[in-house]
Amino acid sequence: MLDVAGGAGGDALPLAALGHEVTLVDPAGALLECARTHAEGLPGRVHVVQAHAEDVPHLFTAAAFDVVLCHGLLHHVDDRVALLRAVTAPLRPGGLLSVVGPNPAADPLVAAAGEGDLDRALALAGSGRVWVQEVRAALPACTADDVRADLTALGAEPIAHYGIRCVADLVAPPVDPDALEVLELALADRMPYPLLARFFHLLARRG
Prior knowledge:
- The protein is α/β, with parallel strands linked by helices.
- 33% of the residues lie in helices and 27% in strands.
- It has nine helices and nine strands.
- It has helices spanning 12-17, 29-38, 56-59, 80-87, 107-114, 118-125, 144-153, 177-187, 193-196; strands spanning 2-4, 22-26, 46-50, 65-71, 91-102, 129-132, 137-140, 157-164, 199-205.
- Strands 3-2-1-4-5-9-8 form a seven-stranded mixed beta sheet, with helices on both faces. It has a two-stranded antiparallel ribbon with strand order 6-7.
- Strand 1, helix 1 and strand 2 (22-26) form a beta-alpha-beta unit.
- Helix 5 (107-114) packs antiparallel against helix 6.
- The longest helix is centred in the C-terminal third of the chain and has 11 residues, at 177-187.
- The radius of gyration is 18 Å and the shape is globular.
- It comes from Actinokineospora spheciospongiae.
């Protein structure tokens, strides 16, 4: 499994703990060092490579991986198709590509219901941009439909659309975390909730 722009291993390490072998690629040395430290208890399961996503075709052979993760990256680039082509270069035919990104349709709901800020909700509703709280910056919108079209242009077959954080950002604390997890899992693949979730998650199969 290849995790592109995986940072400190937020996705790679839990997957390695489940028994998967994961190669983590990221340009940030400090984040990769953090991943290395936390992977010490998982010998042989986490491999770390400092490089940019665009370098992937030059780092690995064709069909080297069964699964490629591209999470939280596409909305930062101008040419999504070129990036997807690069990160899927070492994916075997029939292998799975997992793409996660912020969903701009959720922003007005989060601002209104989760934060009580109706003015910002109205501004976001017509802005065509996405608000990522972690970086406190407005980024160009990149929707699930956009990415689905990109994948199709590459000859990949979109096979699933999930929602991440369908309600978590809309409920006021205190909330039972176990009950919230059960609800999130129940809504994740049940339309129309993925269309309004804080993040979209697409799975595609390489042709």
